[in-house]
Design brief:
The chain is α+β, with helices and mostly antiparallel strands. The structure holds adenosine-5'-triphosphate (ATP) and magnesium ion. Adenosine-5'-triphosphate binds next to α14 and α16.
């Protein structure tokens, strides 16, 4: 998985994109990212806000509807109470002459628009019905409301369910009005029944007392809610003012008896009131079974509404129906869609503007960069006169200024270098010429000097000890020998002949050198320690040249220890680099720091005049170099000096081609 990802990243990295594309792509990514988040959050906020607004409204509407509903009930209650207190009723019950009472009550019922207005005795036996004169004699104490008044002897009012029989007793017309055959409704709960015979009534009952305040009867009246659209239409009119949206009423109200629409202004597909249809199971469970209000979207008959439902309870607090108001969801969906589209449009336009702006900003950055790139290319190809002109008053301008300064400095240095190089070449040509001259002179002087040395020796030998000229001859011999030494050194240095390399044992070469010098007087108070590594590999060198290097270093060391000291000679093999190392460590007076870098220069010497030519280390350096080795020094003033000569094992034997000397010395 990770390797796949890495491979993908590698591929992405290997894609070469111009900086302009990269910049614009980065802007694009940022703009896309921000606007996506902005849109998602914005749309979400808008949706939530609009839905919340709608729910808030429908909640208020339900409160208003409830007030209207309860207002109706209170009105009935008032009528019943006032009428029950009237004298003629008391008279009628006490005298048993109901004719007069019937007329009066009938008038009240018609005037107040009640469906029933009925008189009972103090046990609930019906004395007279104004809606259906023939009926009477039955007992109404089974009615929860009447029961309550019988118990408390106080007025009571509530919504009640009235059975089909009772309705028929009150008036066969009412029974018909209340009857509903259920109409198939999608999403409604399963029911075994197919019809509703009972009715739901707003009902009030009031006790009647005689002049001694004895309870002598009950007057009850009410309005059947089934097929009575007065309340729901009043709600609709008050709250929604008959406003229509796309041919549909925007707001609707309904009264349910259990789950059946008994009073509604929700329309069915044919445009008439959807009476007899039922509420969805989901809403029913929440409102009727759980007894909680429902605020939210719900499917009502044939459309989605933002709805509010709350239970209607009877006098015993039993849930017997539902009060509903709802607003067509489509309107809010359209508002939301409009808002979202506007929002989207603004966001996309803003993103586009941001992109265009970023493109021009990128251009503003890129043009100076291109200028810089072109100028760098020009400088790289040797045109040091190239300059960049950027006036952006920012880092790019500083960069351009620095670039111009750099180009100028480069140009100056280039000129200086050229001048310096010309001077150096001229100087070294001069030096080479002088060197050549010196070599020629040395060569010419060598033979005559050799003659002077030989003949002055002969003269010295034949001169008597008492001869006063003997001292002068001795001086001639000494000075001539010194001249010859200088000339030889000069010759050696200037000739720098190619080494003749053979496979050699470096330990043996060291021993050989020591044997030359060990017996000499200056070695007498010097302790020599040898730390030669055994099994040292054979090495390809010119032994006579390397001997010269070793001798020179050893003699320098002894000269630095004229008061005595220790000289440690070591050899070892460095397997990692395949080099043989020769180390010479003395306890002499050491070298001044400022002299350290000069000691390999020809003619550099600190020795007294006549004691050193200053050519020893210069020659040694040349020899080691021609062996592809190195010679280094480490010195501490007053403590001693260490010379380290490193020679490669793998070298070239003349006439034998490339050969690797790996033979082990067996001592
Ligand atoms: N082991 C050492 N300790 C202190 N100084 C040293 C040592 N080896 C070299 N030098 C310094 O380096 C100088 C140059 O040495 P180099 O061998 O080139 O010339 P020289 O010894 O002075 O003369 P020549 O070798 O011709 O006799 C010496 O004069 C001395 O000052
Ligand atoms: Mg020397």
């Amino acid at each position: 998985m990770t390797t796949k990802l890495e491979a993908l990243l590698d591929r992405a990295r290997s894609v070469r994109l111009p900086i302009a594309t990269k910049l614009v792509l980065s802007f694009l990514l940022i703009v896309a990212f921000i606007s996506t988040i902005y849109m998602v959050v914005g749309i979400r906020l808008i949706s939530v806000r609009i839905v919340a607004e709608a729910q808030e409204k429908v909640r208020h509407d339900l409160n208003a509807a409830r007030e209207l509903y309860l207002g109706n009930l209170a009105h009935i209650n008032d009528i019943v109470r006032v009428t029950a207190d009237r004298f003629f009723l008391r008279e009628a019950i006490l005298s048993g002459n109901l004719e007069n009472a019937y007329r009066e009550l009938h008038r009240v019922r018609i005037r107040e628009g009640l469906d029933i207005l009925t008189l009972t005795d103090q046990h609930g036996n019906v004395l007279l019905r104004t809606a259906f004169f023939d009926s009477g004699g039955d007992n109404q104490s089974h009615d929860e409301l009447i029961k309550k008044v019988l118990e408390n002897e106080e007025p009571a009012a509530s919504t009640v369910i009235v059975s089909g029989e009772d309705l028929e007793r009150e008036s066969p017309l009412l029974k018909n009005k209340a009857y509903f055959e259920f109409i198939d409704t999608p999403l409604a709960r399963e029911r075994e029944e197919i019809e509703e015979t009972a009715g739901m009534m707003l009902k009030a009952a009031s006790p009647i007392f005689d002049s001694e305040n004895n309870f002598i009867g009950i007057l009850y009246g009410g309005t059947l809610l089934n097929r009575n659209v007065e309340i729901v239409d009043k709600v609709k009119e008050t709250l929604y003012e008959e406003i229509q949206y796309k041919g549909q009423d925007i707001g609707t109200a309904t009264i349910f008896q259990d789950d059946v629409r008994i009073s509604t202004n929700v329309k069915n597909n044919y445009g008439s009131r959807a009476l007899g249809t039922r509420v969805t199971e989901e809403v029913y469970d929440q409102v009727v079974i759980k007894g909680e209000p429902w605020i939210g979207r719900a499917y009502v008959v044939n459309n989605w509404y933002i709805t509010a439902y709350e239970p209607i309870r009877d006098i015993t607090d039993k849930i017997i129906g539902i009060l509903y108001v709802g607003i067509l969801e489509e309107k809010y969906l359209d508002i939301r869609q409009g808002a979202v589209l506007t929002f989207l449009g603004i966001t996309i336009a803003a993103a586009f503007v941001a992109l265009v702006v970023s493109y021009f900003m990128a251009q503003r950055i890129l043009i100076p960069i291109f200028k810089l790139v072109n100028a760098s290319k020009a400088v790289a190809s040797g045109n040091l006169d190239a300059t960049v002109d950027i006036k952006s008053n920012d880092e790019l301008e500083y960069l351009a200024d620095s670039f111009n300064q750099m180009a100028l400095a480069l140009k100056k240095r280039d000129e200086q270098l050229r001048e310096f190089a010309t001077q150096k070449i001229m100087e070294s040509e001069k030096l080479a010429l002088i060197g050549q001259l010196a070599a020629n002179v040395a060569h010419e002087l060598n033979n005559p000097l050799q003659g002077i040395v030989t003949y002055s020796h002969l003269i010295l030998e034949t001169t008597d000890n008492e001869d006063p000229s003997k001292a002068s001859v001795e001086k001639i011999v000494g000075q001539a020998t010194r001249c010859r030494d200088i000339i030889r050194g000069l010759l050696d240095f200037s000739r720098q002949r190619e080494p003749i390399k053979t496979l050699s044992n470096i330990n043996a070469v060291m021993e050989q050198c020591l044997s030359f010098v060990e017996d000499q007087a200056i070695f007498h108070n010097i302790e020599i320690t040898k730390r030669f590594e055994e099994d040292l590999p054979m090495i390809v060198i010119d032994p006579s040249q390397i001997e010269r290097v070793i001798m020179n270093i050893i003699i320098n060391a002894t000269e630095a220890m004229d008061e005595g000291g220790e000289l440690i000679l070591s050899t070892r093999y460095d397997a990692t680099t395949d080099f043989v190392e020769l180390e010479f460590k003395d306890t002499g007076h050491g070298i001044h720091e400022e002299d350290l870098e000069k000691i390999f220069d020809p003619f550099f010497t600190t020795k007294e005049v006549g004691h050193g030519t200053g050519l020893g280390l210069a020659i040694s350096y040349g020899i080691v170099k021609s062996h592809f080795g190195t010679i280094t020094v480490d010195s501490r003033l007053g403590e001693g000096t260490t010379f380290l000569v490193r020679l490669p094992l793998q070298s070239v034997i003349e006439g034998q081609g490339n050969g690797r000397a790996r033979q082990i010395i067996n001592n």
